[in-house]
Automatic annotation (TrEMBL):
<feature type="transmembrane region" description="Helical">
    <location>
        <begin position="194"/>
        <end position="213"/>
    </location>
</feature>
<feature type="transmembrane region" description="Helical">
    <location>
        <begin position="146"/>
        <end position="165"/>
    </location>
</feature>
<keyword id="KW-1003">Cell membrane</keyword>
<keyword id="KW-0813">Transport</keyword>
<keyword id="KW-0472">Membrane</keyword>
<feature type="transmembrane region" description="Helical">
    <location>
        <begin position="234"/>
        <end position="259"/>
    </location>
</feature>
<dbReference type="InterPro" id="IPR037294">
    <property type="entry name" value="ABC_BtuC-like"/>
</dbReference>
<dbReference type="Pfam" id="PF01032">
    <property type="entry name" value="FecCD"/>
</dbReference>
<keyword id="KW-1133">Transmembrane helix</keyword>
<keyword id="KW-0812">Transmembrane</keyword>
<feature type="transmembrane region" description="Helical">
    <location>
        <begin position="121"/>
        <end position="139"/>
    </location>
</feature>
<comment type="similarity">
    <text>Belongs to the binding-protein-dependent transport system permease family. FecCD subfamily.</text>
</comment>
<feature type="transmembrane region" description="Helical">
    <location>
        <begin position="279"/>
        <end position="299"/>
    </location>
</feature>
<feature type="transmembrane region" description="Helical">
    <location>
        <begin position="308"/>
        <end position="326"/>
    </location>
</feature>
<dbReference type="GO" id="GO:0033214">
    <property type="term" value="P:siderophore-iron import into cell"/>
</dbReference>
<dbReference type="InterPro" id="IPR000522">
    <property type="entry name" value="ABC_transptr_permease_BtuC"/>
</dbReference>
<dbReference type="GO" id="GO:0005886">
    <property type="term" value="C:plasma membrane"/>
</dbReference>
Length: 333
């Protein structure tokens, strides 16, 4: 049996994750379709840049900020969902969050003709949260009210939303043309205004996640044990789902669906710091941010002078990683 990391080891892991995130953020400013040197970046920071170079650095800075926010949000949401469901294959998609945002975006594209923009972020966010509420109300009021019922309800709602999205995109070409740029999942083309639009939801989600960490530890021992320890299981589950929904919905609304981050990062985090959610959540936030920025950098480099959208990169590298995690036993609780 693998020994649990010591507090010193966990602190070292947290520090290393923070250093890794800082390194990825700095690297993101230098690399792209063209490598930018330190002197050129210094010119931008000191206010004496070439206009084209300034635009390039501003775009890289914006996508780095978006990558950090989205990566950390999806990773923490994954930790919460896996903690609540006690399912190592759990991710925010089980509750229909991505499809809820996608359905709302399709509807907005049909009405307004565009699926991208600061205004559409709120529409996607509302769609995602509304889907989670429906799933929770329907699943929670069933005869059993169990986590399994909740997940099955999420699967049913997701199937309905998927059918709606396919119908709209196949029968309305103008909707497909607008929606296809959003649904891939990309950090480019977004503005800091989008990040500001979703920041309240992200802030609430992160605060709730950290506050729920001790209760999630109790829940990991089983519902009966958690109840005997004084944990209000139903309330913790509801608040945890709400926190995960806020984080994942905001991330999806901002940049589109990003696969595997919420599923893979919790496995990696548990292998590093163990099952204590008080350590899992901060480490997952840092690792998720660093990995998504790294995936974005990779997408810029391997297809120069064009780029591969980060949603495609995470899907390509996430699937083999998940298979490795299962084979190595990282998914074990």
């Amino acid at each position: 049996m693998k020994a649990h990391p010591s507090p010193a080891g966990k602190l070292a892991t947290l520090t290393a994750a923070a250093a890794g995130l800082a390194a990825m953020a700095v690297t993101s400013l230098f690399l792209g379709g063209k490598v930018t040197g330190p002197i050129e970046i210094l010119d931008v920071l000191t206010g004496n840049p070439d206009p084209y170079l300034e635009a390039v650095i501003d775009a890289r800075l914006t996508r780095t900020v978006m990558g950090a926010l989205v990566g950390s949000a999806l990773a923490v949401a994954g930790v919460i969902i896996q903690g609540i469901t006690r399912n190592p294959l759990g991710d925010p998609g089980l509750l229909g969050i991505s499809l809820g945002a996608s359905a709302a975006t399709v509807t907005a594209a049909a009405v307004t003709g565009t699926a991208v923009g600061a205004g559409s972020v709120w529409i996607a966010l509302i769609g995602a949260l509304a889907t989670v509420i429906v799933v929770y109300i329907v699943g929670g009021r069933s005869a059993s009210g169990s986590v399994v019922t909740l997940l099955l309800t999420g699967a049913v709602v997701s199937a309905v939303l998927s059918a709606y999205i396919q119908t709209m995109t196949l029968t309305r070409p103008e909707v497909f043309d607008s929606f296809r740029f959003w649904v891939i999942g990309a950090l480019n083309g977004r503005s800091l205004e989008v990040a500001l639009s979703v920041s309240p939801a992200l802030a609430l989600g992160f605060i709730a996640a950290f506050a729920l960490a001790p209760s999630l530890n109790n829940l990991a021992l089983g519902e009966d044990v958690a109840t005997s320890l004084g944990t209000p299981v139903a309330l913790v589950r509801a608040l945890g789902i709400l926190a995960a929904a806020l984080l994942a919905a905001a991330a999806t609304a901002a940049v589109g669906p990003i696969a595997f981050v919420g599923l893979a990062v919790p496995h990696l985090t548990r292998s590093l710091v163990g099952i204590d959610h008080r350590w899992q959540i901060p480490v997952a936030a840092l690792v998720g941010a660093a990995l998504l920025i790294a995936a974005d950098i990779l997408g810029r480099l391997i297809a120069r002078p064009e780029e591969i959208m980060v949603g495609i990169v995470t899907a390509l590298i996430g699937a083999p990683f998940l298979l490795l995690a299962v084979r190595k036993g990282w998914a074990a609780r």
